[in-house]
Fold this sequence. Notes:
The chain is of the alpha/beta class. It has nine helices and eleven strands. It has helices at 34-43, 60-71, 80-88, 115-121, 139-151, 169-175, 190-199, 238-241, 261-276; strands spanning 30-32, 48-54, 74-78, 103-107, 127-134, 154-160, 184-187, 203-207, 214-215, 225-230, 246-249. A seven-stranded parallel β-sheet has the order 7-6-5-10-8-11-9, sandwiched between helices. Strands 1-4-2-3 form a four-stranded mixed β-sheet. Strand 6, helix 6 (169-175) and strand 7 (184-187) form a beta-alpha-beta unit.
Amino acid sequence: MPEPVRNKSCASAELNASPRHIADEAASPVLCGIKPVLELLRDDPGKIDTVFVRKGLHGDASAILDLCRAGKIRFHLCEPADLARVLEKSSAGHPGQVRHQGVVARLLDTPFAAFEDLLATAPDAPLPLLLALDQVQDPGNVGTLARTLYALGGAGMIVPRHNGAFLGAGARRSAAGALEKLPVSRVVNLSRALDAARQAGFAVYGAACGEQSADLFAAPLQLPAVLVLGSEERGLRPMIAKRCDALLHIPMLRAFDSLNVAQAGAIFVAECLRRIR
C-alpha cells in the first residue's frame, strides 16, 4: 500500500470539527438561533459549512446534532466563549447584540460547480488539469493553490465536503480573485469522485513521497488529469493513494523534510504546463 504523502499535509478529522475551525475566518456569514438552524438543516443543508452548539444544550439541540450526523455536516460542541469568537469573526454584527440561543451555523459563501460539469469542461481548459485536495486544512494554502492553478490555465478544483478548509475570506484573500473565476466542485466522497474521473478518461496522480513514487520530472504524464494533494500534516490517505494511477514526488537536491502543500502544488502544476507546451 502506498505510503502517505509528506508534502506536508493531512490530519484525518472526524465530523465533529476541531477547535481550529472555530474562528478562522473574518466576515463569514452565519445563521443564529435554534429554530432557524433547524429549518436550514432540514430544507437546504448544503448551505451550511459548520454548526457550533454550546455544550450542555438539550431539547432541539439534540435534533440539530442528529441532523448534522445524518447529513454529514461538521459540528463543534463548544464553550460560550467559543461561540462569542465565532460571532466576533462573523458578519452578524456586534456579538453582544446577537441572540443565538447557543446555536450558530457558519454558512458557505462560495458557489460550487457541479462535479459532472467540471469533468465535462476540464478537457477544454488551456491546461486540462484538476486539483483535488485531500483534507487540506489551511484556507491560505487553498487560496494560493487556486491562484496558481487559475493563472497557469488549470481547469478547476475538487474539494471534499468534510475535513477541508473553509473557502471564506481567508482563502479569497490568498486567491486574489481566482476563486471567483476558477470552477470549484465540492464532493461528499473524494474516493468516489476520483473513480468517476478515471471512468471519464482522466489520469489520476497523487503527490507522494516514498519508494513507490516516481520522479515528477522523469515520469510520463497524461492529460487530462487529476492531481491529488494531501493534507498539511499527513499527506494522502491510503484510500486515496491507492486510487491514483501513479504517485509522484518532487526530487530534492538537499536533505529537507518537505515543501508546503501550496509550494509543492505550484511545482506540479507548472510541470504539467511545461509538458503540454
